[in-house]
Amino acid sequence: MIKPVVHDPAALTTVATPASRADSATIVDLLDTLAANQATCVGMAANMIGVNKRLIVVQMGPFAIAMVNPQITHKSGAYETTEGCLSLTGERKTTRYHQITVNYLDRNFKPQQQSFTDFTAQIIQHEVDHCNGILI
User: Which residues are tagged catalytic?
Assistant: First the structure.
């Protein structure tokens, strides 16, 4: 179900709690809300739709993937960039990394480890920051 986007900084800066199979419906809501905002959004975290769980979705070309309890375990190649956020107005400067490795559970709750580069890595870093209560 498409959910309204949260704009309250207090809600967005609260550290998310681990997700479980009981949060499966939130994954569907995130994917639906991302699809509804595809013209202006390439990733979302659950706190952006009012659910304080470690869940993110990321648009990767024509596919959107869900990551449950994502943890960035490696990062390299720091660079400065500016980003926008569907929950915030304007753009802000931030530091990101060209390459990251992420441990996560897929939407079927199977463990995954994958490396990502460049723009996809940037999206994941932004959404993991949301889970950690960090805004750009």
Answer: 127
DSSP assignment, residue 1?
-
Task: Report how far residue 126's alpha carbon sits from residue 47's, in angstroms, rounded to the nearest whole number.
Answer: 13
CA nearest neighbour of 72 among 125, 32, 24, 111: 125
Tokens coding 91: 């753009």
User: Where residue 58 falls among pLDDT bands split at 50, 70, 90?
Assistant: very high
Cα(130)–Cα(83) distance, rounded to whole angstroms? 13
The dihedral through the CA atoms of 109, 84, 35, 64 has a sign that is negative
Residue-wise pLDDT tens digits, 59-117: 999 999 999 999 999 999 999 999 999 999 999 999 999 999 999 999 999 999 999 99
